[in-house]
Write a structure and sequence with these properties.
Its cofactor is pyridoxal 5'-phosphate. Keywords: Carbohydrate metabolism, Glycosyltransferase, Pyridoxal phosphate, Transferase. One of its GO terms (molecular function) is 1,4-alpha-oligoglucan phosphorylase activity. Helices cover about 50% and strands about 15% of the residues. The protein is an alpha/beta fold and about 800 residues long. Strands 1, 4, 7, 8, 11, 12, 13, 14, 18 and 19 form a 10-stranded mixed β-sheet that branches. A 6-stranded parallel β-sheet has the order 22-21-20-23-24-25, with helices on both faces. Strand 24, helix 26 and strand 25 form a beta-alpha-beta unit. Bound molecules: pyridoxal-5'-phosphate.
Length: about 800
């Protein structure tokens, strides 16, 4: 049906009629979108089945990626692209007068994630399928993804996100594979064949029903699976109100927690974590048992990656199944478990390390808690043998201590591999945050620098740039992204660079059009598009960017000799609803936008735009249009960052600190091809340890800082007279925890360099070309290969065998 545009058109019109009982002329774009979506899903169904069969029958090891978040975005466009049928469909629809872009806009983002961690999981799925690896995702089918952000009077307002309001063409409900997950209740012990056994009684069960989403490989026949669990009521406990039970049950897959850094200590969150883990493990075990009839070889045939500590209960859950259901002895069960599970750490922020109070944990998950207690006891005994008498150390490293269960400690002890997500992050883990553990288990630790799928972030998001690249160096880079390096020699080719500039201009015009529609502001496509998009967090320092813009504005107002190349500062960021400070910064950005955009004296040189509701589909329009990428976290705080890679791959130049994967970006392109500034991680860590930083000194000794700081509280922003006092206080009274004032001067200089560099277009696009050429390393295909080779020990399966 996709072999030619004629046969596609025929099939499409027929399907539309049959599904909606309408003629084409009566149909809406939504009808048309769902028709096409369903056609694509049906089209891949035989490959999906074949991939599953291949996995079942080939006895090859399978990888399961467990993640509380999957930030997929839209699927239609990527699926058409990966299947190689985008052109046929576009032409076929075009002749019917339908624009494929309009159709794609109908699809709601699958926004089941907060930011980088969830998007990484989505990029990994694409890379697993596209490199023919037998790797699948397990997550939760939240009814509401990350909230929809509206800006009202400059404030963030959160609306419940509704991606399932209309039918979802991509999911298939598999009721027959539902499993039961047990909470609460008591643990009963009994004796069986001379061994003490345990069973869970009087618990409350929730049914986990899988919804499968096909993950379609690029230009191969692989279709892997993302399985999302839906929470539904099962057998009703009689003593409970049925409606209340139903509500409580469904709440488990109702909302994604809108926070990726704070442990908010919500019992529902722990329920979600166990729900995901237990359903997934039961499912994996069941299918393994079906194939092999035993779990003794489980670790040889299954690798489970846990994305941060949210799914860490996979460790005690696998133990529970092996001990209580399979009746395997402790030592063997532990050996199987610790050869199956590996753990990715995503942060060194101590407030983000999950710790659960025992008084919450133990009644909710009584058997899991018992198992963790036993793991802890045996592990502490080992520590005692290694460090006899050193109670402080043992207490510090314990899994359960002071009434808390420490999830990261459980993850390290129960995994065979622990990885950080960028070089500097892994080094900080080994040398500081997890030093004690690194001493005991040095062989477990390794680095796997994050990546992004170039198929979404270049091929799909920027087809114009992709075409230019392919016309210049051939298209082998699509299969082997490191071949983008062939572009290096074109860094000095003026005709190439003029074409690159032209593509950038087109993408800037497209974004300017969106901004005009959404924000009602006309921006100059000749201005430098300076973009800061990511979750709003103090450590990501959107505030540093804001203070710099205020400084530029002041200079322009006061110094008639001062001029700059026109600059458009573009922000996009959601703040966690309970994160007071972050919301203040959003209000500040919007107040600043009001101020500078409406000043006729400066508005031709300086504009500030806040893009509402930053998400994957918007991100795809932003990265290609960026000239400058803001990656300005306090050094040592950003584990990796992946936004930085998307910008680089689209030819933006980075202004950044040596933090996270900025370090590897710098290694790839050299520091003369980016704008580095600010404290180094070492220096930040030194300040943190030994003190010696006084923000007050910077306030007093730098007139520029003093002025912008005072403007936060002196009525410079009309109508928000005292609303920025908390920001002012955080910088001065609380000594500026993120070294914003410390890095201010250095940041101003970096921006002066940017302003100057942009005057020399051939030089600018030389740098831009080198960024693109060196971005292949950051394809998640490379990252996934490293996981496959060094952690999972799996190889690509051959394509479907045609016999
Ligand atoms: C890539 C991405 C992120 C992560 O951005 P960072 O700059 O690495 O924090 C967050 N949200 C969306 C929608 C993304 O596409």
């Amino acid at each position: 049906m996709f072999s030619s545009k004629e046969s596609f058109q025929k099939a499409f019109l027929k399907k539309l009629e049959m599904t909606y009982g309408k003629s084409f002329s009566e149909s809406t774009v939504r009808d048309q979108y769902h028709t096409l979506g369903n056609m694509v899903r049906e089209y891949i169904s035989s490959n999906w089945i074949a991939t599953n069969e291949r996995n079942r029958n080939s006895n090859t090891k399978q990888v399961y990626y467990l993640s509380i978040e999957f930030l997929l975005g839209r699927l239609l466009g990527q699926n058409l692209l990966n299947l190689g049928i985008r052109d046929v469909v576009e032409q076929g629809l075009g002749e019917l007068g339908i624009s494929i872009e309009d159709m794609e806009e109908v699809e709601a983002d699958a926004g089941l994630g907060n930011g980088g961690l969830g998007r990484l999981a989505a990029c990994f799925l694409d890379s697993l399928a596209s490199t023919n690896l037998p790797g699948h995702g397990f997550g939760i089918r939240y009814k509401h993804g990350l909230f929809e952000q509206k800006i009202v009077d400059g404030f963030q307002v959160e609306l419940p996100e509704q991606w399932l309001r209309h039918e979802n063409s991509w999911e298939v409900r598999k009721s027959d594979q539902a499993v039961e997950v047990g909470f609460w209740g008591e643990i009963e012990s009994y004796c069986e064949r001379g061994r003490l056994q345990f069973r869970h009684i009087d618990g409350e069960t929730i049914t986990a029903v899988p919804y499968d989403i096909p993950i379609i490989g690029f230009s191969n026949e692989t279709v892997n699976t993302l399985r999302l669990w839906n929470a539904e009521p099962s057998s009703f406990p009689i003593y409970k109100d049925v409606m209340e039970y139903k509500r409580e049950t469904e709440a488990v897959s109702e909302f994604l927690y809108p926070d990726d850094t704070h442990d908010d200590g919500k019992i529902l969150r722990l329920k979600q974590q166990y729900f995901l883990v237990s359903a997934s493990l039961q499912n994996i075990v069941n299918s393994h048992r079906k194939t092999y009839g035993t779990l003794l070889n489980f670790h040889e045939k299954v690798a489970i990656q846990i994305n941060d500590t949210h799914p860490v209960l996979a460790i005690p859950e696998l133990m529970r199944i092996l001990l209580d259901e399979e009746k395997i002895g402790w030592d063997e069960a532990w050996s199987i478990t610790t050869q199956t599970i590996s753990y990715t750490n995503h942060t060194t922020l101590s407030e983000a390390l999950e710790k659960w109070p025992v008084h919450i944990f133990k009644p909710l998950l009584p058997r899991i808690f018992m198992i963790i207690e036993e793991v802890n006891e045996r592990y502490c005994k080992e520590l005692w043998e290694r460090y006899p008498g050193d109670w402080t150390k043992i207490e510090h490293m314990a899994i359960i201590a002071h009434g808390l269960v420490k999830m990261a400690h459980l993850a390290i002890v129960g995994s065979y591999q622990v990885n950080g997500v960028a070089k500097i992050h892994t080094e900080i883990l080994k040398e500081r945050e997890m030093k004690d553990f690194y001493e005991v288990y040095p062989e477990k630790f390794s680095n796997k620098t994050n990546g992004i799928t170039h198929r979404r972030w270049l091929l799909k998001a920027n087809s114009q740039l992709s075409s230019l690249i392919s016309e210049t160096i051939g298209d082998e880079w699509v299969q082997h992204p490191q071949l983008l390096s062939r572009l290096n020699e074109y860094a000095y080719d003026n005709s190439f660079k003029e074409r690159l500039e032209y593509v950038k201009k087109e993408k800037k015009l497209a974004l300017a059009q969106i901004i005009k529609e959404k924000n009602g502001i006309v921006i100059d496509e000749h201005s430098i598009f300076d973009v800061h998009v990511k979750r709003l967090h103090a450590y990501k320092r959107q505030l540093l960017n804001v203070l710099h813009i205020m400084y530029l504005y002041n200079r322009l107002k006061e110094d008639s000799n001062f001029s700059i190349h026109p600059r458009t500062f573009i922000f996009g960021a959601k703040a966690s609803p309970g994160y007071y400070y972050a919301k203040k910064v959003i209000k500040l950005i919007n107040s600043l936008a009001d101020k500078v955009n409406n000043d006729p004296q400066t508005s031709h040189l300086l504009k500030v735009i806040f893009l509402e509701n930053y998400r994957v589909s918007l991100a795809e329009k932003v990265f290609p249009a960026a000239d400058v990428s803001e990656q300005i976290s306090t050094a040592s705080k950003e584990a990796s960052g992946t936004g930085n890679m998307k910008f680089m791959m689209n030819g933006a130049l980075t202004v950044g600190t040596l933090d996270g994967a900025n370090v590897e970006i710098c290694e790839e392109i050299g520091e003369h091809n980016m704008f580095l500034f600010g404290l180094k991680a070492e220096e930040v860590l030194h300040y943190n340890r030994n003190g010696g930083y006084r923000s007050y000194d910077y306030y007093h000794h730098d007139k520029r800082i003093k002025q912008v700081m005072e403007q936060l509280i002196n009525g410079f922003f009309p109508h928000s007279y005292d609303s920025f006092e908390p920001i002012y206080d955080s910088l001065l009274m609380q000594n500026d925890e993120y070294y914003v004032l410390r890095d201010f001067a250095s940041y101003v200089m970096a921006h002066e360099q940017i302003n100057e560099a942009y005057q020399n277009k051939p030089k600018w696009f030389e740098m831009s070309t080198i960024n693109i050429a060196q971005s292949g390393y950051f394809s998640s295909d490379r990252t996934i290969k490293e996981y496959a080779d060094h952690i999972w020990n799996i190889k690509p399966t051959n394509r479907v065998q045609h016999s």
